[in-house]
Design brief:
Strand content: over 45%
Shape: globular
Helix content: under 10%
Largest sheet: 7 strands, mixed
Order of helices and strands: EEEEEEEEEEE
Radius of gyration: 13 Å
Length: about 110
């Protein structure tokens, strides 16, 4: 059974940083792209970032470009999202996605 488990969310002040992790189990995803999405209260789920199977190619939403960095460790079947210079509008539940699989999300709250 495929399972994606996100961690690392929490409460942070504007300008702060967090690193999210998503650990995959049940199969190996080293040949798949892995991505992060988020859903803010009252809004649709939106794309944040994606990384290809090797880690050599990444894409970001314009809203996070230059502040967030996606990376992966295929030996650990894990994808990360480093978030710097966090803003109020980054508050959301962050979800990991691989192929057709989704995690349950981790909440990031940016508040002073």
């Amino acid at each position: 059974q495929v399972q994606l488990v996100e961690s690392g969310g929490g409460l942070v002040q504007p300008g702060g940083s967090l690193r999210l992790s998503c650990a995959a189990s049940g199969r190996t995803f080293s040949s798949y792209a892995m991505g992060w999405f988020r859903q803010a209260p009252g809004k649709e789920r939106e794309f944040v970032a994606v990384i290809n199977w090797s880690g050599g190619s990444t894409q970001y939403a314009d809203s996070v470009k230059g502040r967030f960095t996606i990376s992966r460790d295929n030996a650990k079947n894990t994808v990360y999202l480093r978030m710097n210079s966090l803003k109020f509008e980054d508050t959301a539940v962050y979800y990991c996605n691989v192929d057709v699989n989704w995690g349950k999300g981790t909440l990031v709250t940016v508040s002073s």
